[in-house]
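Protein FAM3A isoform X1
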Amino acid sequence: MVALPLSVLPPGPLRIVALVVTVGLTWIVVSILLGGPGSGFPRIQQLFTSPENSVTTEPRARKYKCGLPQPCPEEHLAFRMVSGAANVIGPKICLEDKMLMSSVKDNVGRGLNIALVNGVSGELIEARAFDMWAGDVNDLLKFIRPLHEGTLVFVASYDDPATKMNEETRKLFSDLGSKNVKDLAFRDSWVFVGAKGVQNKSPFEQHVKNSKHTNKYEGWPEALEMEGCIPRRTTAS
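Predicted structure tokens:
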């Protein structure tokens, strides 16, 4: 409280007036600092409020199926997939807002992670991981040889996708629409969506070579992320 020293206060009735004025001034100062009713000044608390604690009303960007920034047209399937990062973070394959393969689902592994999908209904047929470093390539061949016409094939690499690949494997993926599988090598990053019976090369494919000059991680290139909208097949046999 602001107060005048007793030595300077006037005697008698004037002393009472001075005390009343002092108390009044003190109340006004406190009222201003605390932002009382009618005050045109900011509250003293607001002077020490951090921006992080302030409430904002910025609109949040809307996300669509599988986190796409915009919706797919009718009769299209929304997808998003990410290859593995080095040999640490597993790949993800999402279709129509359903996670088909991921580390959380515990169905991914080193090598090629492949999800087979009905191209008409968009329903998952089967999802498996094939070890392309120490596994048997014949397991992979048995998986993709008998595909039915119109089956969609989602592929995401993890660690090493190519060491056990042979010519037949590369040809089968090429027939599914891949243009990069012929060059796929040890520890490359690769994501691909193809289909049984396609006439042209798929527009949904990314490939990064393993190179010590450009690798993001020690011994591995960067992870790849791809998203888009796939037209539904009209028929599948």
